[in-house]
Amino acid sequence: MVFAVVMIFVDQTVVSIAAPSIIEELGLSSSGMQRVVNAYLLALAACFALGGRLADVFGHRRMVVVGTLVFVVSSVLCGSVPTGDFAESWLVIFRATQGLGAALVFPAALAVVVSVVPVDKRGRALALFFVLAGALTALGPLLGGWLTAWTWRAIFWINVPVAVVALVLTALARIPDARRRERLDVPGAVLVATGMGLSVLGIQQSSVWGWTSPATWACIIGGLVVLVVFCRYELRTDEPLIKLRIFRDRAFAADTLVLFFSMLAFVPVLYFASVYAQISLSSSPHQAALYVLYFFVGFGLSAQWGGRILDKHGARPTMMLGTALACAGFALWAAQLTDLSAHDQWPYACLAGAGMGLVLSPASTDAVNRAIDASYGEVTGVTQSVRNYAGALGMAVFGTVLTHVTTSRVAQTLSAKGLPEAEVQGAARSIAEAVTGHPDDRSPTGGGPTSTLLRSAFEAVHMDFAEANQWVFYGMSVSLGVAYLCTLLHPGTRVTGEVAQTGAEETAQERSRR
């Protein structure tokens, strides 16, 4: 199962490392590249609930196999994208189908692990599961940096041998393929995917359409309305996609809120830290991978500790400590970004990662432990939907902030360098969109004196981009501060094996009476 899910984790990091190379070769804007990243995250968020339900209805092993095949075929197609006008659409489409494959694999794989481990040992077991996956994921940036130096397309093709190993091991493991004879809630799946898709699309496109555009707010409000309709529908149907009554459990609701606000920072930091390293620190893709690895070192070291705290004392202590550390880590990291020195930043990157390691696995495990009728695939689908929806939302919001602040800072720099006022906004926007080492190539102003001014200003633009990233990283710190407040809602109760077994028996008796 670790091999099955490692592709999912690697693809969240490896594409970030290769982003500048993809932008340069295919001629994408930074907004276009964010759409490529967001397509994967959004498909994950939109389809996780469906993936979890499919795993329960059709069998965990079967969904692992099907999802892996969808993922690896999509990976090959992503690596085969043709250059030209259709490049962005091609990548967005097949990154989305990658996300679909991942949404089928992860709930099923995690449900397999959960189903064979006693509840009082799950904290350590799932922490080990996430650490092993995270350790292999940590190789993703390093591998991505090395592969990108050859060709960025290899970052997708590397999934093929990993998928082959995963499929062979899945066959050898002889995993039981238990199924639940229940109807699949197709209308619910369509509603949740539509609602999530529209709301995130509106926020992500706000950097292009503008916050005053009717289209922006039509998507955001329309998506939220659809999600409200989805909730009302689920409460009235006999066999819903998501049993919303589980949110009546105060601990589960607190776990979900903590995951949501934590993931607003976790996924975006991998992208923005990589781009910051390559733009503001002038790092190579390989050096940027090492920069991001600081965060993963802290994450990996603390995750096992968080699992042990969960098993002994419950989820609340580790979540409170983790969110506090991550909040402080991101704030201190943000303050150091304008020093333009990776050496001065690594302790704070490690601190932020350590905080995240103490939060994510325990919160997810505690939520799964509270599954209704031991429907681990379904509850995993719910928690992972929340995690990845938050990740896509974070990418959209922080991407918008980064674009706007970068444009403002660069415009001030270009004005100070003597660029005519009539050309400042267009050139500043062009540089902010490009986010590469060649701003003059994408400037609409052409060559001549203007191009010379842009070249002379680019050293200052390094600092402009760093200052814009400060806003993003401080925003991540704020989101972890809110997550800390959400931990206070957790009652501090623990789920024991006896409680879990009693709950499952009571639910089974209730279904038998019906």
Question: How would you characterize this protein structure?
Answer:
The structure is a single chain. The protein is mainly alpha-helical and 514 residues long. The protein has one domain: MFS general substrate transporter like domains (Growth Hormone, Chain: A, Up-down Bundle). It contains 19 helices and no strands. It has helices at residues 2-26, 30-58, 60-79, 87-115, 122-150, 154-157, 159-173, 186-204, 206-209, 214-236, 250-279, 285-313, 315-336, 342-369, 376-416, 421-434, 439-442, 449-487, 497-513. The protein is globular. The relative contact order is 0.13.
Question: What topology emerges from the helices and strands here?
Answer:
Elements lengths: L1 H25 L3 H29 L1 H20 L7 H29 L6 H29 L3 H4 L1 H15 L12 H19 L1 H4 L4 H23 L13 H30 L5 H29 L1 H22 L5 H28 L6 H41 L4 H14 L4 H4 L6 H39 L9 H17 L1
Helix pairs in contact: 1-2, 1-4, 1-5, 1-7, 1-11, 2-3, 2-4, 2-8, 2-15, 3-4, 3-7, 4-15, 5-12, 5-14, 8-10, 8-15, 11-12, 11-14, 11-15, 11-18, 12-13, 12-14, 13-14, 13-18, 14-15, 15-16, 15-18
**What is the CATH superfamily?**
MFS general substrate transporter like domains
Would you identify the CATH architecture? Answer: Up-down Bundle
**Oligomerization:** single chain
Element order: H for helix, E for strand:
HHHHHHHHHHHHHHHHHHH
Roughly how many Å apart are the termini? 36 Å
Q: How many domains, as an integer?
A: 1
Question: Which structural class do you get from the secondary structure elements?
Answer: mainly alpha
- Count the DSSP helices: 19
> Might you state the CATH topology name?
Growth Hormone, Chain: A
Rg over CA atoms? 23 Å
Largest sheet: none
Unreliable spans are 435-457, 498-514
**Assigned CATH class:** Mainly Alpha
Question: What coarse outline follows from CA principal-axis ratios?
Answer: globular
Nearest-integer average pLDDT: 80
Q: Report helical residue fraction.
A: over 70%
Count the strands? 0
Strand content: under 5%
